Recover the amino acids of this structure.
């Protein structure tokens, strides 16, 4: 068996692993290995310039960008618009729910108190994942407001479906012109 054929078979196995794996860090490593093998195949097929570009960009720069992005996503940021103990770290029912949720995804839960109302609706400015406030219609219900496009919101909705005093609201993230 020729080395090129063996490398192509390894690339197919790595591609399937990338598709099926769920661990982001392993995906970055496999993508980098895929790029290195592709660079080797380019070189063997007499394209050293393409091989060099693939090795530099696909195996070094892109994985670095992914690792930085993954590291920044290790936090679940919640803005608290409440004046009661619902999100209190020691006694709050809402805090316990959010803590269990964050633990499920391996995220660090960060709850910020917002008294001035400046943050509401500005999801993109501070990478806010969730806003918690009282329902204006029913003072006994708490609203968990998050981005509709967030996969995390679907899991949070699933986890809180049996809790009567929590209502999940998914909002569209509006476009902004900076």
């Amino acid at each position: 068996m020729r080395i090129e054929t063996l490398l192509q078979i390894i690339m197919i196995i790595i591609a399937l692993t990338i598709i099926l794996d769920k661990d982001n860090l392993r995906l970055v490593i496999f993508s980098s290995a895929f790029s290195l093998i592709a660079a080797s195949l380019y070189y063997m097929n007499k394209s050293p310039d393409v091989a060099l570009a693939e090795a530099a960009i696909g195996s070094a720069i892109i994985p670095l960008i992914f690792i930085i992005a993954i590291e920044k996503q290790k936090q679940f940021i919640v803005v608290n618009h409440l004046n009661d103990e619902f999100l209190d770290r020691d006694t709050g029912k809402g805090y316990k729910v959010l803590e269990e949720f964050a633990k499920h995804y391996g995220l660090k839960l960060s709850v910020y108190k917002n008294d001035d109302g400046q943050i509401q609706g500005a999801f993109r400015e501070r990478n806010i994942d969730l806003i918690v406030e009282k329902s204006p219609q029913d003072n006994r219900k708490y609203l968990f407001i998050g981005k509709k496009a967030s996969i995390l919101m679907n899991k949070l909705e699933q986890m809180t479906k049996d809790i009567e005093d929590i209502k999940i609201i998914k909002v569209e993230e509006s476009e902004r012109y900076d």
Residues 32 and 60 are 7 Å apart (CA to CA).
